[in-house]
Amino acid sequence: MADRQRGGRRYWRNLAWFTLAALLVGALALAVGLSARWAHNYTHPVRRLIEHTPADYGLAYESVAFSSADGLLLAGWFILPQGKTVKGAAIVLCHGYGATRAELLPVADVLTRHGYGALPFDFRGHGESGGDLVTLAYDEVRDVQGAVAYLLTRPDVAPDRIGVLGQSMGAATAIRAAAQSPEIGAVVAESAYASLADLVANDFGSLTGLPRFPFLPLMTAWGEWQTGLNMDLVRPVDDIARISPRPVFLIHGLGDTVVRPESGVRLYEAAREPKWLWQPEGVGHVTAVYKAPTEFEARVIAFFDQALLSE
Predict the structure, then answer these.
(1) Of 100, 130, 139, 281, which residue is least crowded by CB atoms under 10 Å?
(2) Cα–Cα dist 157/168, whole Å
């Protein structure tokens, strides 16, 4: 009888341990699976269609294609200045993550009204450009370099009057590209993140709806495996000082809930002169051209005029 009771207790104890182990394995598999899916989603965003063209804004333009510095075919528009050009100055426009070049048409409208040429283009893995892997401002530097190289082939663009304006991921990329590319004479960066690791860590819950542990380290590991890159390599805050003596203008709305306004402050503090920071009240993520259009236009044009047109 006693042996039977001991055997019964052993059976239930083993069953409990087996059930617990199965639950733990299942939970781990679920965590790994969800993390892998989120990592894949971030590095392979769904492509959005080009919903508008410069013609919708009454802008004259050319559809153009050029290669990134590492050989991917990229799609863009060269939007011609409205009226007289300003000494052949042109601005490369860099959209944010998951967007397309069409998102930058309001900015292009501002620039071309003041005589600038504008080159909005689709980053790799976005819009109509080649590639399917997005690295959130690492390989995208090669896209900006390809855009600048394209402008240097145009007889209507002065090689010493090329600037870059970027938003969000495009802003982080613009900073990193300018640090490596002396051909870029001036940078406007709106809603740039100081580092990719900080962006993901600070906003992981709001971006994914998942708890930080265990999903954040698992998703980071999967993302780094998929891209072959270390997230810590994407640190515009470490790059921005190398842009000097070329000027940098940072825009970061105080209502930004995607990239915290503190990132703009960190970037400004890390930058060297000449540098400017504008933090408009009531402006969210990359919405300054909509929420504060008059001041946006005045500040951006004054910056590029001083940076690119001064003799």
Answers:
(1) 281
(2) 26
